[in-house]
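Honest question from a wet-lab person: if I give you the sequences of every part of a complex, can you actually get the arrangement of the whole thing, not just the pieces? Trying it with mine:
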Amino acid sequence: MMNTKEQELQILLVEDNPADAEMTMDALRLGRQVNQVQWVKDGAEALELLLGRGDESAAAARRLRLVLLDLRLPRVDGLDVLRALRADERTRRLPVVVLTSSHEEVDVVRAYDLGANSYLVKPVESEAFMAAMVELGLYWMLLNKAPGDTK
Amino acid sequence: MTKEIHDPAILTSTAEAATGRAEVQRQEALIKTGALQDAIFNSANFSSIATDAQGVIQIFNVGAERMLGYAAADVVNKITPADISDPQEVVARAKALSAELETPITPGFEALVFKASRGIEDIYELTYIRKDGTRFPAVVSVTALRDAQDAIIGYLLIGTDNTARKQVEEEQKVLDQRLRDQQFYTRSLFESNIDALMATDPRGIISDCNRQMEVLTGCTRDELIGSPFKNYFTDQERAEASIKQVLSEKKITNYELTARSRDGKETTVSYNATTFFDRERRLQGVFAAARDITERIALDLVLKQKNAELESANNELEDFAYSVSHDLRAPLRAIDGFSRKVVTNYGERLDEEGRRLVQVVRDNAQRMGHLIDNLLAFSRMGRRELVLQPLDMDAMVTGVVDELRAAEPTRSIEFACAPLPCARGDAALMRQVWVNLLGNAVKFSRRRPSAHIEVGGRTQGGECLYWVKDDGAGFDMQYAGKLFGVFQRLHREDEFEGVGCGLAIVARILQRHHGRIWGEGKPDAGATMHFALPLAQAGDQASEART
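Yes, you can. This is the full assembly:
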């Protein structure tokens, strides 16, 4: 199990809806992950942050443990973000959880085909939503072992 | 011959004047002519009437008496043959002869003998009038009687009764007319047909055609007859092949060809044709009828376009429903989430009524979430590709019933399932039908201490019929029309939960299977939902799967 104090753990939240973003961060706060969340509002911003030129983005990619990705995003769509992340050596194995409103089977299939690690439909009911976010943060940040993790 | 027929009085006086060898010869001649005279005089089948030069009857033989009903004594030395002839015919004959011979001829006896008096052989038809006033047609031969100096001393009119021949002629006329009528009738049927009709010989050369064929080709009947049938079509090979096909298969139906008229106008026609034979069953050729189907084809095209438009509109609507329900979720989540946040962060500052109001907001946001979920499910139902296969309905129902029982472990529900006919359909969708119908039966019978639910089915009239009967809350038949609408409910939310999509989904699934659904019920006396699926037919999988 990771020691949270030893490393600066990062979550990137790609979400265009401020309300959803706030609720997601509320939930992560409950799971004590909030200080490690960075929020960007569209796909282009996400790609710029992770894959842009310069040391800043490389460092960001290195520190990152998880991407929470909405599918319907302005400018660059979530699936295109996923495709770009998987095509780049630096982010090829970065855990990406699709966090969306879409129940559509085609979206699920396409997301997995592009290498999503998980697909979560955001519940409308806030209790269920909060519970899901808390569990998600705990699981991916604490329980899941990613390549390169030190014991 | 005519010269040997003489007036008996003249003959007698001539005989008395004869002497010697000439006398002997005359006697012999007399015997001969006397015999001839007797024969003529006594002939019953010819009326022989001899007159003097003025036309007054001198001899009226047995035949004349028989035909005309006069005794010789009634007429001899009294009247002329004109008096026993149709007066109008006599007048007409006088007029005609006057014109023909360019000399005035008196209507009367002169008209009857004028030609003979000029030495012209004359036989004509005339109507004689009997003593009793009745008439009969006669053929009359007129000869002038001349003396030794060739002067006319009288006339002989030999007549035969023409009634029988006239009758035959009349009958013939009637038969001819009947034949003409028959031909006209047949022809008019042929001509008034709305189809272009045509007969060809076995080589495909047109032997007859009707008016419609002229319209179709822009050619006249005379031009068409004798020319090859194939000439009038855009695809001549295919036209020729049609004739060959008729000859080998005795007939063709709905054979489509495009006719091209002289002015270039093209008409799509559908041909029906058969071989035809004469009375001896010898092949005469091909009889073909072409119906103009241009309009039908145009309509088919319009129908296809409209169907495509409809389908695309449907798809758009479904896409719209999907996208709307998708986009509606996010704000709903915010309404619910932030209402909750109000309670969490500021709950202490709210009184009970304040907290209740926030809860109402949250309840409704969640309810709208359910509505959207169902709308999405309904829209998915319409877009899903059907996979048709034989369905074991008994097994399907048993599975669904087990699940429903497991979900309601505390309730007493008695299921009675009769054997069900197998059907063909999409397994997942058909299972959804049973889940929704049986689920409703379980839900609406909740208030019974012990609920009874019956499932049955049979095949009838090309369909598989199924029904689910419960003894639950039922419904008022006057609202039966609302059973299958989206978001249509017949019960209050606080009586029975639900958003009103279950039966709409069932109806949509059955519609996609070319089936139907209907229900009957009575308030508080249970409901029966029936549905029907078409009996599976061999080879229908492909066509159904596309719908």
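Two things worth pointing out. Chain B touches chain A through 22 residues (CB under 8 Å). Residues 193-292 of chain B form a domain with the Beta-Lactamase fold (CATH 3.30.450.20).
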